[in-house]
Amino acid sequence: MLSEDRKLPYYIQLYDYFKKEILGGALPAGTRLPSIRALAGQLNISATPVELAYQQLVSEGFIASRPRSGYAVQPMHMLSGRAAAEDVEASRKSLPAPPITPRDPQHYLYDFHISKNDFSLFPRKIWRSLFQEQLANPDLLQYGDPQGEPALRGSIAAHLRQFRGLRCTPEQVVIGGDQHLLCTLLCHILPGSNRRLGIEDPGYHLLPAAFARNSYEIIPVQLQEDGLDIELLRASGAGAVYISPSHQFPCGMIMSIAKRHALLDWARVTGGYIIEDDYDGEFRYHGRPVPSLQGLMENSRVIYMGSFAQSVAPAFCVHYMVLPEELLPAYRNLARELYLEHSASRLNQIALHYFMERGHFARHLRRMRLLYQKKHDALLQAIQLYFGEQAAIRGQGAGFHLLLRLNREGDARLLADTAAAAGIRVTPMSYTWWGQSGAEAHRNGAPEFILGFGAIPEERIGEGIRRLAEVWLG
């Protein structure tokens, strides 16, 4: 029933065995299966793999759980030989994909969500007071500046100059209610007829998807150990490139200084633009923060994109980009042509301005860095303790996630699905590849997963990883 070949975890072997036996007729309808405890004892393994295999068989209708009677085979048509094997393989390929988006509503006891935040330290009283101050100003209920409130743009520019090393003024900051809106504005204001966008592959898909919707050709460019392959970018003929140089998503590498200068030189020589996504640049846990690419050169052709979704809260819907001065006339013309209005709440914008101006934001960032650093370190220690040499880690040291790769072949989607059945959310990395070919190539190798640590309580991290190791390693 079980093979010593550990390329397949025990629960998958059990799942395959019982399914083949049922489909082939060896286990007819009504046959009672051994109890979870009894079968685990016979096989000298823990009960968890047996329970997971049974749960999957129940969910597919092969067996049913009967009160006080255990598990029994359900009636079904009999298949034999080759047909049974083909049905098993087809069924495994059609297993439901694990939840991979931030909007999945399912509750998990051990939730390693890739983009949730911890609000246990959010300064609610301070924010409530600041917001109520703005409600007393009736002018803020009117239409606002479509580029964003001047006061907040000033606070953002000052913060970016001091803490992220940018060279910018408030006039270069454009505030938007969501990332897609800012991406769409970029599609309209980038000059020239070259509508080809180079992207990191794997990477974050929101911006390239928005560009693709606006008739841009998306050109995936593979990564090297220190970031995007600049030679491949040069050969691609792209007119713009989208990167996350300070902590690449999802792989976590930092772009080397030599490569940063080579990228800036590419933009200068070709007339192209660099879109720098600094989604988590303020959260580095060991060593000094990595300065932005934008600040390395005066009047650089870099469009810097940032957000308060991670540093404050996504519900406030305050995102922004810093445009090169040469793109400001195109933005202003577009704003007049489309009669643009503010897309982020004026009340939230002004409250956020005072939150920054009065020092609350800087204090909040310091507290959140310490909180996330503790979770980051706890996750690293737990993986090393419970997985040991059977897994590898990369992408650690910053942000809100790291990558866990099992040192054997396996189906990442099935592994994530069985983890979900045990109450553990993990996300296969395969969805971050652009295009089917990249995702398939990744799936055929060692399975790799994104484990977020932002929202999970620190005291659940160790137990969650222990159970994950038990589920996957048997």
Would you kindly provide a written description of the structure presented here, covering whatever features stand out?
With 474 residues, the protein is of the alpha/beta class. Helices cover 42% and strands 14% of the residues. The chain is built from 16 helices and 16 strands. A hairpin with a 3-residue loop joins strand 1 (63-66) and strand 2 (70-73). Helix 1 (10-24) packs across helix 3. The longest helix is centred in the last third of the chain and has 27 residues, at 360-386. The protein is elongated. The two termini are 14 Å apart. Residues 77-102 have low confidence and may be disordered.
Describe how the helices and strands are arranged.
Blueprint lengths: L9 H15 L11 H8 L3 H13 L3 E4 L3 E4 L7 H13 L16 E2 L12 H12 L14 H14 L9 E4 L2 H11 L6 E6 L4 H8 L3 E8 L2 E2 L1 H7 L3 E4 L13 H14 L2 E5 L24 E6 L11 E4 L5 H11 L7 H12 L2 H27 L4 E4 L6 E6 L5 H10 L2 E2 L1 E2 L7 H8 L4 E5 L5 H16 L1
